[in-house]
Each structure stands twice: as structure tokens, then as C-alpha cells.
Amino acid sequence: MDNKQFPEDLYPPEQGEDSALFPEDSLLPLEDAEEEQEAPLSDGECPPEDPAEEGILPEEFPQEEPGDPLDQELMELNQLLDEPSAEPQEPESQTEPEEPSVRQRRPAPERPVRKGRPRRKKGEGLLGIPNILATVVWLAITVAIGVTLGRMLWVCAADVLAFGREDKSVTITIYETDTIDDIAAKLHNANLIRYPGLFKLYASLAVDEGEIHPGIWDLNTRYDYHALVRMMSPSSTRKVVEIMIPEGYSCRQIFALLEENKVCTVKDLSAYAATGELDDYWFLEGVERGEENSLEGFLFPDTYQFYTNDTPRNVLQKMLKNFDSRFTQEMRDQLPALNETISEMMRSDGRSQEYIDAHQLSLRDVVIVASLIEKETASAEEGYTIASVIYNRLFRWGDNPAYLGIDASIVYALGGKTELTAEDLQVDSPYNTRTHTGLTPGPISNPGLASLKAALEPSDTSYYYYVLDPAAGDHHFSKTYEEHQAFIASLGE
After folding, report:
1. pLDDT tens digit sequence for 269-296
2. Which residues contact 137 (CB under 8 A, 6 or more apart)?
């Protein structure tokens, strides 16, 4: 049998020839190639049973049938090339193929497809949107953001600079306890600002902490932020007001008068009078603080000059210092003489020394008496006689209860109500001198100098009653209850 020659295209090209037609990864391993080297067969020879061992090629290529072992090997090799990371699978059978095969160029395996972002087509932008449309969208977004920011800046600038505001005066009251949130809310409610948050930001950046002070401030809706802050601070022009505090005014009345004149607020004055720190005044020794009327009796009535929007401490200190200067040392020396006088009154009334010692008058007691005199007298001259009636009732009443029966104390207990009813006269209060004996718990007014002197130097009388004579304009005094009732009856005739 003649040897058949294999076509050239079954062999790889020589070195230097075009190797692109035969990829390296399409060739069998070197070992397999050596095993399958071709050898010429002589006439009459048959191929050995194991071509791999003899190194002899068959006479001619057998026709490859479907399901040939060579096809299965090619499929397995392709699977290995497609999945390089997978573990090689051992063949189910180790049986060598019965039919030998020659080395043949195998088709190159398909390379795995790389996964990733698909390439954009020319003219397309993000998310497949055409570049022109994407540009238009981004431009529209940019313009919208710019317009929005510009509008916000304009609105904020208009509020900061008070553009387009009407000309309207507004009075704002700032208390010492107010926070910046409270202040911004009050300005907003008064239509002085539109955005409280923006004002708080401005105040925190442009103003030192604490520059806005408590007070009663006259502002205008046309004021910008800078003007508002400046007008509520000590840097603004401070006015001086002159105020006359009448004799006999209570603390409640004095505080209201000061607020009316924009010196200080009632709230701040009341709070500071109760618990604020004051200088160490000798006449406040033994005075219990904690209530808004704690300083009752010691705010000396006089004509003062105050700064508008002053601090409550400055205001109260000024009036307390005035009391200290007006209550002279000579007046202080009269207190022991007064106690000696009332001690003699109690002895003549049959009181024990123990009782007498327990009822000595303090300076505050004298101020309480002076405050009662201040509310009862029609003239400074009769104050000394009214003082004698008060002391006679307190220390010469004998075994009867010492009811002073002064209606001015009931007016004080009722907060200033002047038109008293029968029910009012029975109000349950320690300031009701019709139902409670002795002096009131504290002064009922701030007495003037004349009443203080009358309380220290009472007249020596035997009067126990008095009533106002409308025709004379002063009081009529009586020694007995019968005389007193007879005179009252004569007034109705």
C-alpha cells in the first residue's frame, strides 16, 4: 500500500512564516506531538495495536463519525479553555481510543466575553441620553438652582436691609430673662423682621453677646437689622427722664410709674426687688427677701432723674441710697427714746417686763407705722396725732384686742382696690387690721420724711379713734367710742 501524503495545511508553518493562522493555544502540547510523530509504513505492514507506543501513524485517516472520541476530547479541551479557573474533570474511562489519529489543527476556542459597561454610541451621553439633550437638561438645572439661590439671597437681603417696609413706630419690651429666641420672636410678632432665624444668625455674627439690653425700646418698622440692634443696646442715645415718686406710693405703683416712663419694666424690677443682689444697707437688716414687695417702705419717695432702659439694680439702688441719706443719724438716735415711751405706756397698762421686752419696736416696725400714717393723714401736721392713736391702740388697750381698724391696709391687701365692700372688709389677710391684731406684716406704702418723723415722735394724747371730716378736710379725733359714733352720726345730719 502506498503511503499517502498529508496536505500541507495540516501542519504548522515553519519558523518565520505567518503564524497568525495557527494560534499557539490551538496546538497540542509538545508531549502529545512527540507521541503522535508520523512514520512511513512499508508495504504489507499493519499498524501496531498501540500506535502511541510504536510511534506509527495509520495508513490513512479514518472517516470521523459523530461521537468519535477525538470530538469528545476537543469538546473537553474547549471547556477547559473556556473555564480556566475550574478544576479539570477526570475522564470517566481511562481506556485509550481504539482508532489512532494524526495531529490535526484544532479550531481556536472562543475567548470569554468580558463583562462591563457597554460602550456608548457616538453622540450619546449619560444613561443613553443624547449629548445635546443632556446639555439642555444640565443647563436647565443649573439655571433653576441659580435663580432659586438668587431669589433666596434677595429675600434675605430685603429683610436685613428693611426694603419696602412701611413707616410705623413700635414699642418693644425686653426683659432680663429674655433669650435671643424670645427677642427674635417679639421682633417678628411686631413686624419688625420677617425671619427670626436670619436675625439670630445676624446677631450671633455681627453683635457681641449681651449687647442687646433689657428695656422698653421705641423702634420703627423701617429699621434694618443693624439699626434694630443698635437701638436696643447701650450704644444708642440714652435719654434722661425726671420722675417724681409721690409719698405713700407702694412698690407696685412705683414700678408701674417707672415702666410708664421707660426706665425699667415692672417684671424686672419686681424680680430684682425679690432676689437681686444689693449693697449691704443697715436698715435692711432682718428684712426677709423673696417677694416683690420685700423693699416696701424703703424706696424713698422723691424726684429722681433716671436713664431710660436702665437696669433694675441701678434704679433700686438709687432709691435705697436716698433712704439711707434721708434717714439721718439723729432720727436713728430717736428709736431708743421711742421704745422707752411705749415701755412706759405698757407698764401703765399693767404689762409685765417680759411682755414689754418682747414688744420693743425695730426700725422696720417704725417704718410700718410710718406707712400707715402716710396713707391716713390729710396733712403733715396731723401725722403726729395719728401716730399717737396707733400707739395707744397697740399699747394702752388693756385686755381688749388691739385692732387698728385702718382700711388703707385692706386696700393694700386687695392690690389697690379703693371702693371697699362689706365683704372686702372681712378679707382673710394678715394685712386686714379689722380682723388681725397688731401691726401689719410689713409696710403698706413707702412713707415720706414727715411720716417717718411722726412715727418716731408721736404726740402724747388719749385719742383712740379718728374719722375724716369732709367739711374740714382733716380728721376728727375722739377719746371714746361713744364720742366717735356721735360725731359720725352728726356727719349724716
Report:
1. 999 999 999 999 999 988 999 999 999 9
2. 129
Among 57-61, 77-81, 182-186, 370-374, where is mean pLDDT lowest? 57-61
**C-beta separation of 309 from 266 below 8 A:** no
User: Residue 131: pLDDT above 50?
Assistant: yes
* Closest alpha carbon to 369 in 283, 250, 454, 474: 454
Mean pLDDT of 9-15: 47
Residue 364: partners with Cβ closer than 8 Å, 6 or more residues away:
283, 286, 287, 297, 442, 443
Q: Which residue has the cell 493555544?
A: 25
CATH class belonging to 169-231 = alpha beta
Kindly report each contact of residues 285-293 with a partner whose C-beta sits within 8 Å and lies 24 or more positions away, as own/partner. Answer: 286/362, 286/364, 287/364, 292/251, 292/252, 293/250, 293/251, 293/252, 293/442
User: For residues 413-450, b (16+ Cβ closer than 10 Å) or e, as one string?
Assistant: beeeeeeeeeeeeebebebbbeebeebbebbbbbbbbb
Determine if residue 350 is left, alpha or beta; phi over 0 gives left, psi from -120 to 50 gives alpha, anything else beta: left
Say whether pTM exceeds 0.70: no
pLDDT digits (tens, 9 = 90+) for 165-181: 778 888 889 998 899 89
Question: Rounded distance, CA 307 to CA 301, Å?
Answer: 17
Mean pLDDT on 83-110: 52
479 grid coordinates: 377719746
Q: What is the CATH number of domain 240-326?
A: 3.30.1490
Q: Of 186, 213, 168, give the one whose Cα is nearest residue 308.
A: 213
Could you tell me how many residues make up the chain? 493
CB 177 within 8 A of CB 272: no
Amino acid, res. 459: S
How many CB atoms are located within 10 Å of the residue 309 CB? 23
Cβ atoms of residues 281 and 237 within 8 Å: no
Distances (CA, A) of 285 to 296, 358, 360: 14, 18, 16
Distance (Å, rounded) from C-alpha 274 to C-alpha 325? Answer: 23
Question: What gap in Å lies between CA 343 and CA 355, rounded to an integer?
Answer: 10
